[in-house]
TrEMBL record:
Residues 177-204, 399-426 are annotated as: Disordered. PANTHER family: GLUCOSIDASE 2 SUBUNIT BETA, N-LINKED OLIGOSACCHARIDE PROCESSING. It comes from Effrenium voratum. GO terms for biological process: N-glycan processing. GO terms for cellular component: glucosidase II complex. Residues 309-409 form the Glucosidase 2 subunit beta-like domain. This is Glucosidase 2 subunit beta. Residues 9-171 form the Glucosidase II beta subunit N-terminal domain. Gene3D superfamilies: Mannose-6-phosphate receptor binding domain. Residues 411-420 have a biased composition (Low complexity). The keyword Endoplasmic reticulum applies. InterPro entries: Gtb1-like, LDL_receptor-like_sf, Man6P_isomerase_rcpt-bd_dom_sf, PRKCSH, PRKCSH_N. Residues 1-17 form the signal peptide.
């Protein structure tokens, strides 16, 4: 467990050889001690053998920066870092470019001459933070298991809904084709004009299409349905099919079938209209939009149902006065500016890629790479523009929680500013 390793590290640091150059990692004790003993230092990459006196002389002699573990002389050299022992707290690496810059990066003050040792204060606070993080991970794993159970059930519901919409779309396409080609009122006994619909067929009216209802002034119909004793009308299975006038107590909304036709369509619902080809086209667009949404959700949970909750979720965060929002498996935005739409999913790495956003002036289209990390709450943690029109973000979600997270619960929630590893550069 991490708390145990913190204590072990603190004890180990006390035993470190005092002759090791400032800023060196404990695992490099033998290397530097041997160099000081023999008066000869070999650069880590083996390129040069130098006098031991070059160690921490504030001049970068080795191309890999290994001769200056405790100064900023090799700033900018890949792998050139100072190791903060931070006794009583958590040890860490600091880039050489941050050594001597006037900012206290190490709680023991080893990166700056004038920084006090605050590890005794920072340590307990950091341990409390780690404990809270571990509890958050445990809760995230519990929620993940729950979401996996719910996700499997929800996916089945979405598939059934999509199948029904596919059938509805086929009917609407046929209806629009019929309306486009229709030159005169139909003589088909199954599709009569409202005024001529025979009374005997009233009890045989088919199930009402929810999408068909949308075409005939839903606000007025709903208002009529809420008034006892009033008559109301709706359409049949197809948008242009039978229109009925019914007693609301026997009408739609699951309260039975229309028991009789009263007068004519015009007399019963004078403000209603017969659906046109344009009405059907509008319904087709609505149905297609819903099908697209369902397909996107099903794609999100196709491999693992633990992600189903994200398909219904959007997160927002204000960063330096700018509002960023991401709808998982949907689109990402900065205010009104598109940062891209969902393009690819690296489930193993818990990363999503959003591309095709609004083009930057004289630049590429905006894009965003989103990394999901373990957390009990789904929220946007951090986002920044790492290069021209290219963004990186981090969000927490229970679906990202795994057993490995408890082994690394000190890892910050945002991947944009990670703690440096405790192992020395190779």
């Amino acid at each position: 467990m991490l708390l145990v390793s913190l204590r072990l590290l603190s004890v180990f640091h006390v035993t470190v050889c005092t002759h090791v150059p400032h800023g060196a990692h404990p695992e490099q004790v033998e290397r530097y001690a041997e160099a000081l003993q023999h008066g000869l230092f070999q650069c880590r990459d083996g390129s040069e053998a130098l006098a031991a006196s070059v160690l921490n002389d504030d001049f970068c002699d080795c191309a890999d920066g290994s001769d200056e573990p405790g100064t900023g002389a090799c700033a900018g050299v890949p792998g050139a870092m100072l190791f903060c022992q931070n006794l009583g707290s958590v040890p860490r690496w600091v880039y050489s470019s941050r050594v001597g810059d006037g900012i206290c990066d190490c709680c023991d003050g080893s990166d700056e001459a004038g920084c006090p040792d605050t590890c005794a204060v920072e340590g307990p606070a950091l341990i409390a933070q780690v404990r809270a993080r571990e509890e958050d991970i445990r809760e995230g794993r519990r929620i993940r298991r729950q979401q996996m159970e719910e996700g499997g059930k929800q996916a089945a519901i979405w598939r059934a809904e999509k199948q029904g919409l596919d059938d509805e779309l086929a009917k609407l396409m046929l209806e629009r084709s019929g309306l486009d080609n229709k030159k005169a009122p139909s003589t088909d006994p199954q599709v009569r004009t409202p005024a001529n619909t025979p009374k005997s067929t009233a009890r045989e009216a088919p199930a009402i299409s929810e999408y068909a209802k949308w075409s005939l002034q839903p606000d007025e119909q709903n208002q009529a349905a809420d008034q006892p004793g009033e008559l109301q009308c709706w359409v049949g299975e197809f948008v242009g099919a039978q229109a009925w006038c019914c007693d609301p107590s026997q009408g739609p909304r699951g309260r039975g079938e229309c028991w009789d036709q009263v007068f004519t369509f015009e007399a019963c619902c004078p403000n209603a209209k017969v659906a046109t080809s344009e009405d059907v086209a509008r319904l087709i667009r609505q149905v297609k939009g819903r099908i697209f949404t369902l397909e996107r959700k099903l794609k999100a949970v196709s491999r693992d149902p633990r992600w189903f909750a994200l398909a219904e979720t959007c997160v927002k965060k204000d960063v330096m006065g700018k509002e960023f929002s991401i709808c998982f498996f949907g689109d990402a935005r900065q205010g009104s500016v598109s940062l891209g739409s969902f393009e690819a999913w690296d489930e193993a790495g818990h990363q999503q890629l959003y591309t095709g956003g609004q083009r930057c002036p004289s630049g590429p289209s905006r894009s965003l790479k989103l990394r999901l990390v373990c957390g009990a709450e789904t929220q946007l943690l951090d986002i920044s523009e790492v290069s021209l029109c290219s963004y990186e973000a981090a969000a927490s979600a229970p679906g990202a929680c795994g057993s490995e997270d408890l082994q690394d619960s000190s890892t910050p929630l945002t991947p944009l500013t990670p703690l440096t590893p405790l192992t020395p550069p190779q």
